[in-house]
Amino acid sequence: MKTLSRDLSWLRFNARVLQEAQSPTVPLLERLKFLAIFSSNLDEFFKVRVATLRRLAKLKKKTRARLAESPKRVLKEVLTEVARQQEEFGHTFREQLLPALNAEHIHLLSEKELTDKQREWTAKYFREHVRDLLSPVVLDDDLHHLFLKDQTVYLTFYLRQPVAKTKKAEAERVLIMELPTKRHGGRFVRLPDEGEERYVLFLDDVIRVGAAELFPAYQQIDVHAIKLSRDAELDIEEEVSGDLMEKIRSSLAKRATGYPARLLYDPTMPAEALRALKQKTGITDEALVEGSRYHNFRDFFGFPDFGEASFHYPPRPALPHPTLPRTGSLLAAIGQRDHLLHPPYQSFDYVTRLLREAATDPRVSAISITLYRVASKSEVVKALLKAAKNGKQVTAVVELKARFDEESNLFWADKLKRAGAHVVLTPPELKVHSKLLLITRREPDETTRQYAYFSTGNFNESTADLYTDHGLFTANPALTTEAAQVFDYLRDQTTTPELHQLLVAPFGLRPGLNALIDYEIKQAKKGHEAYIILKVNAVEDDGMIAKLYEASHAGVRVELIVRGIGRLVPGQPGFSENIQQRGLVDRFLEHSRVYVFAHGGQEKVYVSSADWMTRNLDRRVEVAFPILDEALRAEIRQLLNFQRHDNVKARDFDNTFIPAAAGEKPLQAQEATYAWLKGLKRRLAKKIG
């Protein structure tokens, strides 16, 4: 079966991010942010995937032979592609973005480009704002071991040619220090404007200017930057015994001291300095990766703004919902009909409002919720704390294995426990990735009714402004009863729910999807219309890829919209000729998952938290929920159609932009989505009228 390496596929995705930084149609400072996203993504890739490949490559030969792919071969291919992308990244920054900044009278200078007047100003700034933040460490015989923090830029100083022979001034010295970005308040320093010309300097270069004052005993001072990424793949899922919370706390400590996955260094660094660095840290040659003069481009998220609207995307304020009330009871509105929510086009505040209402409603008796990633100052958790204080039975299923959010989740789990909430910590072998909220209420007629919110996105106000997601508010018993069964399963995992509407991993999602695909295959073989439209972040699982190949071979039309990893190879004669694949990278991060099946003319539409990856199907609790309301199905399909026909931001499998056909108007899915949702209330009112 022909597939693409998972890691090479992920690198293709990051190449699409880099394409946005290269696009002149993207506002200038947004292009810099895409460079920051690319850099941040690559850091995580080394911390997780490259580190894992290196561990696998060190397994015994017999053990490696059982793996589907040779980790040594994949690692070699990955590092080759990373080197190519790094070169393209540098070219994009130097040859495209710096000239574009210059054209807008913004000049990002190095210390070598400063005028005498600017150098004098910078030297003064160094003395007044930077010097006291510096703590250089000498790499000499007195230092037995040097520990470098993860994801932190350091500057090395190679000192030669003492001004005078003294005990303090040896012929050659190597020092290192952390770049004090956080204590300084950012990576960039704005110099005084000169007319309409604006000037910016890296903090690194401010220190280069001040190095002579820092080390007055030396005539030659070479300053270079390095950055270390440590192994962050903690293999927590393999831990099957002991107290999970303590294991997480222990693993967080290990992450800070994890195995070095990559040391980025300036290739112009003197060999003596690099040798001393390797000797004191124990870093091996395999972890060394040539970088450039500057590292940690994620710091460009903090590049000076200059207050010009044209440098950013035009404002897209969250739209009011067409059927949910701006004020008054959301529970009452949900009790009347289902509603779809589409953050960030529509405000996530409807979710937090619902929780606040439930927390204070005297008729609400219980609230159950899954928490995977929450905001640092979470309004969601604050509402849950208030509900617990008001005597509601609050059950929070907190996922402690959400990578890079473990510490935050530990904090909120402790807060909820102290408030009297029932906190469910998932078992080590299972990760809860589903996004569910269930509210139980005693109605005025003394019956009990449940209200649910199913979502593709986290209960996180911060990411809700950046990620495109779909959420369903419903009081339909066909869905809420099954949501309650999922929460029962999460509490004890002793019984498997009997579900008819929801497809739930790890027990029902894979067989449910296989059954739906099999139905399409049967329809195609009968000569009936058969199609599958799949929008996800990743298609990685071998079993599902094989099933889609089988469907294609049977004549089922398969359309894939894949943002990230896509191991399936489309358009190949004999097994995937009926499969098309495209991906979208634009202003917002595409995060929703939608599965559509023709189903003999009775189209089925599922929305889900799950990608088609082995971990999502077999080792996580995921929920795919059907859109039962006909009007809401049409709504989802309309938004999906914008993605299917995008000819501005869509790329094919090979990352080639898909152009508009002859006579076809440009269609940018995210812009079209915002405009369509903006007019939805008017269209609904006209339809009702």
From TrEMBL:
The active site is at H433 (phosphohistidine intermediate). Residues 117-303 form the Polyphosphate kinase middle domain. Mg(2+) binds at R373, R403. ATP binds at N41, Y467, R563, H591. Its cofactor is Mg(2+). Belongs to the polyphosphate kinase 1 (PPK1) family. This is Polyphosphate kinase. It comes from Hymenobacter cyanobacteriorum. The gene is ppk1.
